[in-house]
Amino acid sequence: MSEQFPSRDAVATTVKEYLxxxxxxxxxxxxxxxxxxxxxxxxxxxxxGPLAEAQGREDLQRLLVERRRTRGWYHEIDELWIxxxxxxxxxxxxxxxxxxxxxxxxxxxxxxxxxxxxxxxAVRSIPGIGSSLGG
Length: 135
Prior knowledge:
By secondary structure, this protein is an alpha+beta fold. The protein has a single domain, classed as Nuclear Transport Factor 2, Chain: A. It contains 3 helices and 6 strands; from the N terminus they run H-H-E-E-H-E-E-E-E. The chain has helices at residues 8-24, 27-31, 57-68; strands spanning 34-42, 52-55, 74-83, 86-94, 101-111, 117-125. A 6-stranded mixed beta sheet has the order 2-1-6-5-4-3, with helices on one face. A hairpin with a 2-residue loop joins strand 3 and strand 4 (86-94). The longest helix is centred in the N-terminal third of the chain and has 17 residues, at 8-24. The model has no long low-confidence stretch (mean pLDDT 94).
């Protein structure tokens, strides 16, 4: 029996929806993009805080609403690599759309056959990669 993978288009659509929903503050809708048994790991939302991690969609929704909350950050996709059921996402994060650079972020995702996210691990660089080179 061969393993079933989501289409590249399904993965790309989910990743873009994830970022759009985060930026719009639609945090309950962000959680809907994940499987019931998902794993989520994100760097601390506040300097010196704990990792933001959740196991399962309900736990993720609670984490996003209670700890992440709505932020004005804007993610510009630099690269999105997709292979089988996995992706690597590279973004530049700005304080607001058109605002100053905040950081660089990377997301590593694994996807269910229907395109929902099973596992998402994010890492970031503050300051953003390339910021020391000037304009």
